[in-house]
Amino acid sequence: MKVSKEIEQLIPYKPGKSIAATKSEYGLSEVYKLASNESPVGTSPKVLSAVSDALSNLHRYPDPNSTELKDLISKQTEVSPNEIVIGNGSNELIDLLIRTFCQAEDKILTSASAFIAYKICAKAAGVKVIETALTDKMEYDIPALVSELQVSHFKIVFVANPNNPTGTYVPESEILKLLEATKDMDDTLVVLDEAYNDFVRAKDFPNSIALIKKYKQLVILKTLSKVFAIAGLRLGYIIADEKVCDYVNRIRNPFNVNSLAQAAGLAALQDTEFLKKARDVNWGGLDYFYGELEKIGVTYWESQANFVLIDTKMDSGAVFEALLKMGVITRPVKAYGLPTHLRISVGKESENIIAMDALKKVLNELSNNN
Ligand SMILES: Cc1ncc(COP(=O)(O)O)c(C=O)c1O
After folding, report:
1. With a 6 A CB cut-off, is 223 part of the ligand 1 pocket?
2. Could you tell me the pTM of the whole model?
3. Ligand 1 contacts CB of residue 236 (under 6 A)
4. Tens digits of per-residue pLDDT, 122-160?
5. Which fold has domain 5-43+273-369?
6. First to last CA, the chain
7. Shortest-distance atom of ligand 1 to CA 36
8. For residue 93, which atom of ligand 1 is closest to its CA?
9. Euclidean distance between CA atoms 269 and 227, whole angstroms
10. How does residue 243 score in pLDDT terms, banded at 50, 70 and 90?
């Protein structure tokens, strides 16, 4: 069997290590997974009850248009249902956007150390990826992106805002510069991937939905895997110009979103109490991490998401392994070009304490050995 050169060379996405695999490999009874930016507060009881009600209809195909879900999002965001596409997780939508608008040899633009799915999906489709370097504050360099756009044609610009794995964000003033620079390019989309926007505390974070009417090239990408806590069911959506949505819908599999995910999404998006709790737990966890990291002098970047990136100043693979032996799963981010960095997701309060205690011990031991 032969595949394209791009698929042959593709390094597949490496998910966070599972609790079950870690328990069996290291003979541990307790393992704490702070590796995949999942919700530490479990799933909302309202979502569980909606999913349980939907179970009696599993013999039916799901609504191919996710009508109720689109109507709800339309009401909440004041965009038309025709400006929404629902996906089987936002990862599917990244793939669909690339496959809809790019042909082999076209180019997409993003930053180094941006969410890796842009690169994987593009390469699989034979699409070239150009990355600008991060700034010295580990942020997207918007002037550098604009310079690239002035000299070359890109079909899509992907901005993860906030970005995974850095946790940094692009403020509204910078996003506006990017949108102004692309507004007269009739063949370039700007995707703002807002997987983590509900965790943002920065006051100058853009209100992207308010920008959608003015900038037709803008595509907003959302997920229900993070603050809404239904990663296991897979649900995400895009908000974009009707024409963009129409094209994406032409290649979307008709039953891409299963009926349990649709029911869960409807309940999750309306559960404001759960949303508040999830944010409070996250912010408490982040502040605790910052305090502990400062005490031990570990470099970190203030995060607008549900994880923190640290620089261990040594091979992060060794730190990751040593933490695994203590039952704490974190995420080394070498694949993002950051060989000494680790990403640690916010967990439950007790898990955060265990993780920071373990990190202190491990860094101490490893630096004494060097
Ligand atoms: C920035 C970003 N975008 C998109 C996704 C994909 O989310 P999902 O496919 O679960 O909706 C993730 C997942 O971690 C992410 O970090």
Report:
1. yes
2. 0.96
3. yes
4. 999 999 999 999 999 999 999 999 999 999 999 999 999
5. Aspartate Aminotransferase, domain 1 (3.90.1150)
6. 47
7. 14
8. 9
9. 10
10. very high
